[in-house]
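Usage

Read records sequentially. Each one opens with the input sequence:
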Amino acid sequence: PTMVVLHGPSTAGGAYMPGMSDYVVGIRDNGMAALGGAALVHAATGEVADDRELGGTEMHASTTGSVEYLADDDAHGIAIARDTMGRLDWNKNTTPIRRNDYEEPVYDIDEIAGVVPTDYTIPYDVREVAARIVDGSDFEEFKSRYGPGTVCMQASIMGHAVGLIGNNGPFDPEAAAKATHFFQLCDQSELPIIFLNNTTGYIVGTESEHKGMIKLGSKMIQAVSNVRVPKLSLYIGASFGAGNYGMSGIAFEPDFLFSWPNAKTGVMAGASAANTMSHVARVQAKRKGVEPDEAMIAKQERRIKDIFESQESAFFTSGRCLDNGVIDPRDSRKVLGFALETIFEAKNRTLHPNAFGVARI
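and closes with the structure output:
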């Protein structure tokens, strides 16, 4: 079943969203669906019409039958949607969830607000986050002495066994190898993987290149792509460059992806991009046999930094649907638990597809 809550205007192709849904809840005085709004109708046909007359929810509820339920306001519309879904008894074909006993974390989840700095450049231990999310604050760390800047853990959240990976800095070759091994083991044991993103990427430099950073980083990213178990990502700090790939960013289709308000994402950090381009400008000037124009370079640096930083905040990226929403960090355990139960239900439901598509006549 598909459902639409028509909160506001939905025109042109957008009008087919309610048209192709089984249940439509329309918000009185605000909801509107029409192939063309008043402006387009006038431009195309010369007809002078009113948006409410063309496609208001009240009209659809009484004239076209395209709205099943008319709500007084947004909150009422959501309440109707929840009530309608509840009456479908949708979980009757779902294997009952086997609920393991679990304990609440020993450490208070509210302390997360003080554990994690808002500035991603200030280091902290991601274990402090895990201890406030997992059951009983109890986790087993995998290969703790190998690639220690990356932390891999086995734990449970609200009775669901999971693997977690978090960052205490960029990925080095050893950390990438460890993470690849860990992902494969989670896949083998059908453990959902939770990615706690706070990394500036894969470490660069002569030493890491000689150790095979490209090869080992590629294997890690390949493992993220190929695991068959659910993936849940939290942007809890930085998530830059290929580090975003290795930590199951949006392009790697995690089942759920949420951001904390302090999160920053991008191809690279604004300061790094600006400094890189400044270095390139100085090298180019010297190749031409002229002195670098430091004033011009400084201006370019500020401009690049401003462009990058204006697009890396959680609210900018979330506003462009690059995650499933910004959450209060103190809700992380609750959100992850809910997401894990949702995934379990989806995987253990028997579906009965019909042959006629949307039941709308």
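Summary fields computed downstream for this record:
- The first strand starts at residue 3 and ends at 6.
- DSSP finds 15 helices and twelve strands in the chain.
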